[in-house]
Amino acid sequence: MKIVKVSGGLGNQMFQYAFARALESRSGEAVYLDISTYGYMPAHNGFELDKVFAVKYREALEADVERLGTRPRSAAESIRRKYFTKRSHYIDRYFRYDPKVFGFQGDRYLEGYWQSEKYFAPLADSLRQEFEFVADPGPENRRICDAADKTQGPGISEHRPLVSVHVRRGDSLGLASTRVCTGAYYANAFELVRGRLARPLFLVFSDDVPWCRENLGLNDDEGIYVDWNRGAESWRDLWLMSRCESHIIANSSFSWWGAWLDSNPHKLVIAPEQWSLREPSRPGYYQYDFRDIVPEGWVRASI
């Protein structure tokens, strides 16, 4: 038996689900999801996978989670989980692709974020089918997609290629160790897009729209600030991102998936050159290494 811990927001949940599916495919064993973390570690809108997508999964039983893993529901359990880890409980401490996890024998509880396409690339086609949206994205989001192709007269049409732009500031600004994509990053990305696409229409998704209006330099004809998908409907931003033809992502698992779900093999995706940490990771329990998070073929731009 293998159990994969699920935690965090929707983007993290998608990475953990994709990893679990890859683990099941590679091992031939049934893989279960531990979603009990949302009972003691609430995050964003809780567990959303089955509310948004057509996914199917096996939920781990409480007894099996207790047997194989340690859940940090108290200070003592947090210490035990890290420094007196059960042999059956594996914690990914490095945040880079590690193929050895596919060779684990016997019962295991696996905890991590698994943020690399390398884990699940062979399942890309089937995962895109499983990550088909089942919930209604709403009329405003559909209207934007419909308006991107508009007919001006018989046989005459003007195509406006949609470009998703994700600007993440709110939570990241509060973390001294985390990089935040600058105005220069977006300016460079806009230049790259304009050099490839004619009359792109930038859809800006952000937790700080006032900063975007002041700093991105988009005129009314170039940009739409998508500020209506809030709270429990935030996943609709992901739907709209995935319908775009090109993508400028932040160092965020949410916009990473918005770009990845676009199945066009010729899409342009621009990602931060340095993913997260301002400085190299210091010696400690976690040794953050994000070298594998940006897929080959995506364009890295200076942050």
Percent strand: 15-25%
Q: What's the Cα radius of gyration? A: 20 Å
CATH architecture assignment name of the largest domain: 3-Layer(aba) Sandwich
CATH topology of the largest domain: Rossmann fold
Label the overall shape: globular
Characteristics of this structure?
303 residues, alpha/beta, Rossmann fold, 2 domains, six-stranded parallel beta sheet
Can you offer a commentary on this structure?
The protein is of the alpha/beta class and 303 residues long. It folds into 2 domains: 129 residues; 163 residues, Rossmann fold, CATH 3.40.50. Helix content is 31%, strand content 17%. The chain is built from 11 helices and 13 strands. The strands form 3 sheets. A 6-stranded parallel sheet has the order 10-9-8-11-12-13, sandwiched between helices. A 5-stranded parallel sheet has the order 3-2-1-5-4, with helices on both faces. Strands 6-7 form a two-stranded antiparallel sheet. Helix 1 crosses helix 11 and helix 10 packs parallel to helix 11. The longest helix has 18 residues. The model has no long low-confidence stretch (mean pLDDT 91).
Question: Which helices and strands occur, and which strands form pairs?
Answer:
Layout: E1 2-5, H1 10-27, E2 31-34, H2 49-52, E3 58-59, H3 62-68, H4 75-83, E4 89-91, E5 108-111, H5 124-130, H6 139-147, E6 149-153, E7 156-159, E8 162-167, H7 170-173, H8 183-196, E9 201-206, H9 209-215, E10 223-225, H10 235-242, E11 246-248, H11 253-260, E12 268-272, E13 299-301
Parallel strand pairs: 1-2, 1-5, 2-3, 4-5, 8-9, 8-11, 9-10, 11-12, 12-13
Antiparallel strand pairs: 6-7
Helix pairs in contact: 1-11, 10-11
